[in-house]
Amino acid sequence: MIPRLPPERRGLIVAALGSSLTVSWASSYYIPAVLAGPMAEALGLSPVWVFGAFSMAMVVSAMVGPWAGARIDGFGGRGVLMLSNLVFAAGLGLLAAATTPWVLFAGWAVIGLGMGIGLYEAGFATLAGIYGKDARGPITGITLIAGFASTVGWPLSGLMMATWGWREACLCWALIHLFLALPLNACLPRGTKPITVPGTVPEDGPPPSRLALWLLAFVFAASWFNSTAMAAHLPGLLQAAGASTAVAIAAGALIGPAQVVARLLEFGLLRRFHPLVSTRVAAAAHPVAAVALVTVGGPAAYAFALLHGAGNGILTIAKGTLPLALFGAAGYGRRIGWLNAPARILQAAAPLVFGAALTAWGVSAIWLTAGTGLGAMIALLILKRG
């Protein structure tokens, strides 16, 4: 059975897990934007090599995600998340010590292992093990906190690099894992008993259909591809549509607030509805924004950023809440590990693929992400609540 904790502990668990995940995101996914250039210069490489190592890390995370999810299903997430902090610290230590490309790639491979066992999927599975079908609220809560990872991570990485250097910045993040994130994860419940019993039908319902799993995997892959492509190329896209550099940067700054507002909406008004409803609306946001950008041009830059950011904010939550609502808590961790594996691989390819499209087609490259977003919306319409 799944243990039920007193309601008064829910806020503490969400705060601890959300804060530790903020550190994990800030020290992995968000450090290349600030540190890739100095890393490459110190090793005599092009920054492309550093981003290539980062892409490799995301592929590694896709490979270990299902194992981590199955482990959390059986024993709870506390131990796995604490292990991720040690792994992150080791990988960051390798980066700090890197004097050759081989050590650089080894460091990012270790960080990829940490990403596979210590980002949102592991956090979502941990909460599903603690709260079962009631995990929707806590899942939204941790995304509200960790949604500020770039807001915290980029300035902090930049400050550490300017003050001490990029190697010292990596070491500082390693120490933050050991002395902040690790103790926060240690505060989580010790574990859950296995929530699946071999040879029996799970209490939350029958196993999901293969079609439903493939449809949901496609939805997650499409949304991750679009999110990463926009994160890497949004200013260039908006300028190709006719926006000035200042407008493009200002519009890009609206994406973070739009994500937070959308998640607050999901936490409040939209929680009355099935997650499938809010996810369908969110999937439609990017295609609608694309039509506005192509039709109106530069003046639609702000509307594009707001719509894309809001949709992306809810889709991030849906990666945790939708599998829970559709398939139940039994086997949840392993399931979302498999569901998100294709997304991680496409995420690794997104900056290169969309960058090439933007160079070749200009603003018309937006039809690439609009098409994947439309495909995700159609897949969600096919999915049923049962």
UniProtKB/TrEMBL annotation:
Compartment list: Cell membrane
GO molecular function: transmembrane transporter activity
Keywords on record: Cell membrane, Membrane, Transmembrane, Transmembrane helix
Bilayer-crossing regions: 12-36, 48-68, 80-99, 105-127, 139-158, 211-234, 240-262, 283-307, 313-333, 367-383
Keyword Lipid metabolism appears in the UniProt entry: no
Residues in Major facilitator superfamily (MFS) profile domain copies: 12-386
Gene3D superfamilies: MFS general substrate transporter like domains
GO CC annotations, alphabetized: plasma membrane
Source species: Citreimonas salinaria
Superkingdom per UniProt: Bacteria
Protein name per the record: Predicted arabinose efflux permease, MFS family
Protein topology in the membrane: Multi-pass membrane protein
